[in-house]
């Protein structure tokens, strides 16, 4: 099993959300990954290869896309954050 792959993780919701956010901002996976402060291939690994992002990566992506982090966290199977 490849590193970062979680067999119990249903990635379809997160993949769809990331693809929609990319389309809304007219950004490539590379541009959005770098804009969020991640390495250039991060979003590609999540969307194309089904890797599960870390909580920290999701927080960076939520900040970049200006969305509620809990939305992405839940789609990736993590618990909500409470402020």
Number of strands: 0
Amount of beta strand: under 5%
Order of helices and strands: HHHHH
Radius of gyration, in angstroms, nearest whole number: 12 Å
Annotate the secondary structure layout.
Elements: H1 12-25, H2 29-35, H3 42-47, H4 55-65, H5 69-75
Helix pairs in contact: 4-5
Protein traits:
83 residues, globular, mainly alpha
Tell me what the structure shows.
It is a single chain. The chain is an all-alpha fold and 83 residues long. The protein is 54% helix and 0% strand. The chain is built from 5 helices and no strands. The chain has helices at 12-25, 29-35, 42-47, 55-65, 69-75. The longest helix has 14 residues, at 12-25. The chain is globular and about 30 Å long. The chain starts with 11 loop residues before the first helix and ends in an 8-residue tail after the last helix. The mean pLDDT is 91.
């Amino acid at each position: 099993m490849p590193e970062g792959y979680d067999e119990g993780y249903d990635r379809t919701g997160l993949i769809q959300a990331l693809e929609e956010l990319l389309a809304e901002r007219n950004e490539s996976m590379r541009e959005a990954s770098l804009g969020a402060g991640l390495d250039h291939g991060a979003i590609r690994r999540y969307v194309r290869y089904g890797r599960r992002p870390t909580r920290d990566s999701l927080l960076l992506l939520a900040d970049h896309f200006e969305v509620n982090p809990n939305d992405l966290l839940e789609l990736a199977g993590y618990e909500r954050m409470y402020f």
